[in-house]
Known about the structure:
By secondary structure, the chain is mainly alpha-helical. Helix content is about 80%, strand content about 0%. The longest helix is centred in the C-terminal third of the chain and has 20 residues, at about 165-185.
Amino acid sequence: STLLASSAASDVYKRQVRHESPEQERELCFTLLSQCEDRYEEAFARTYLADALSSMGLLDSAIQECKKALDITLRNNYEELSLTLYNLIGIIYTYTDDEQGALDYYFKGIKLATRMNDNMMCGALFANIAFLYRKFQAYDKAIETLRMAYDIVQKASENKMRVAFNDYVYSRELAGIELQRCLLYTSPSPRD
Length: 192
């Protein structure tokens, strides 16, 4: 799982699930849900349950859990967890080929990340949008958005994301987009 959060529940989760199967992750999340003592823990458990369900290919169930968790985070102003959920929902919609749904959640995340001055998450969200554009063969938009993501991350004071999104990663992704665009325009057309 790539999601992050901080609480006693998250510490238990990280110790018990790291490097385990999605099925075991799901079962731990059900256990956490049954033991929640507050709304944050419930939202956290539902977020990780959604991540586990997504890993198992149960995308409709994952979206349902995300939306339950998002409702809790928005009602209780758990902004960091809301950012995680906006990103996760966007990723799931990307996998289901719901371009507009993905964009809606990515842009909600960007709006919140900008307000919170969270350049790391803002850059990650733009990078996910670039991936979405690439998936739907909108290569010019993908390149433009990837450059935006890179520029935002370079402004981040948080070093973790800058390391993760360094020049090599940016160059590799850009080259991949360019290659796909070239292949699209140079591929022989199918013969009837």
